[in-house]
Amino acid sequence: xxxxxxxxxxxxxxxxxxxxxxxxxxxxxxxxxxxxxxxxxxxxxxxxxxxxxxxxxxxxxxxxxxxxxxxxxxxxxxxxxxxxxxxxxxxxxxxxx
Length: 97
What we know:
Layout: H1 19-25, E1 30-35, E2 39-48, E3 54-65, E4 68-79, E5 84-89
Antiparallel strand pairs: 1-2, 1-5, 2-3, 3-4
């Protein structure tokens, strides 16, 4: 009798995760949210729902204007998922010198 082939679960390979599973792994850590339009936010992801509405804490909001980038700090924010263009785990990259 032939044994059934072993299946390997690729839990650590991000390309095999559903988007909601990847976002769930980011809860409690810093995330960079790039919005449709001229706003970006960096904060700690506290929770989200199926519509990617998110609760962020310790948030820095960046607004890109013709005069430059305006920065604003917020303690907590409820973000509407309809306006999210991209999520980047780990927060905003450090500027290179």
